[in-house]
Amino acid sequence: MLGLAAPGHAATGHVADVDPRIGTGGDGHTFPGATAPFGMIQLSPDTAMPDFKHAYKYAAGYQYGDGSLLGFSHTHFSGSGHSDLGDVLVMPIAGDVRLEPGDVAKPGSGYRSRFSHDSEVVEAGYYAVTLSDYDVRAELTAGRRIGWHRYTFPVGKPAHLLLDLRPSIYDYAGKVLWSSLRVHEDGTVTGCRTTRGWAPGRELCFALRFSQPMASRELYNRETDITYKGFPGPGNQPLDHDAQNGRALVGVFDFGVLKQPLGVKVAISTVSEDNAIANLDAEGKGWDFDARRAEARAAWDKALSVIDVDASKDQRVGFYTSLYHALLSPTLSMDVNGQFRGPDGAVHQAVDKNGKFEFHSTWSLWDVYRAQQPLMALLMPQRSTDFVRSLIASREASPFGILPVWAYQGLETWCMIGYHAVPVIADAYVKGVRGFDADAALKAMVASATYAPYGDLGDYMKLGYVPIDKEQEAASKTLEYAYDDWSLAQMAKAMGRKDVAATFEKRAGNWRNAYDPATGFMRARKSDGSFREPFNPDTAGYGSDYTEGNAWQYSWYVPQDVAALIKAMGGDARFVTKLDSVFEAKVDPSHFANVEDITGLIGWYAHGNEPSHHLAYLYDYAGAPWQTQKRLKQIMDSQYATRPDGLAGNDDLGQMSAWYIFTALGFYPVTPASDEYAIGRPFVARAALHLPNGRTFTVSADPLDDAHPYVGQVTLNGKPLDRVFLRHGEILAGGELHFTMQAEPNRSWGQAPGARPSSMSDAAHTSGQGSAKAD
Question: Taking every annotated instance into account, which residue ranges of this chain make up the domain Glycosyl hydrolase family (predicted)?
Answer without folding.
Answer: 275-742
